[in-house]
């Protein structure tokens, strides 16, 4: 919830990082807007903005954790923004 910060709301992104021994196995495993699914299709962005879907049965056995992060897309020349400007941030599992 960006409140009156509409510009911030439009720039928010979400990504999922399947981690093996707390490390990312490779760039192809990062799930985000330009790469909406993991190589084995176990982790993907949902139809709604900000939704990450994880098929736990399909996650490779070596993956110990899937980190989900929220970030701000940088824009050249735009005012610097921070997640602290959000009115609220909520995760539903």
Tag the structure with descriptive keywords.
two-stranded antiparallel ribbon; 4 strands; mainly beta; Lipoxygenase-1; elongated; 1 helix; 93 residues
Kindly describe this structure:
By secondary structure, the protein is mostly beta strands. The protein has one domain (6-74): Lipoxygenase-1 (Sandwich). It has 1 helix and 4 strands. It has a two-stranded antiparallel ribbon. A hairpin with a 6-residue loop joins strand 2 (43-45) and strand 3 (52-54). The chain is elongated. The two termini are 18 Å apart. The model has no long low-confidence stretch (mean pLDDT 85).
Mean pLDDT across residues: 85
> What is the β-strand count?
4
Sheet of most strands: 2 strands, antiparallel
Assembly state here? single chain
Low-confidence stretches: none
Count of domain modules: 1
What is the second-level CATH architecture? Sandwich
CATH topology: Lipoxygenase-1
Termini separation: 18 Å
> How many alpha or pi helices?
1
Order of helices and strands: HEEEE
Structural class: mainly beta
- CATH H-level superfamily: sav2460 like domains
CATH class: Mainly Beta
Shape: elongated
Order of strands across the main sheet? 1-4
- Rounded radius of gyration (Å): 15 Å
Strand content: 15-25%
Helix-residue proportion: under 10%
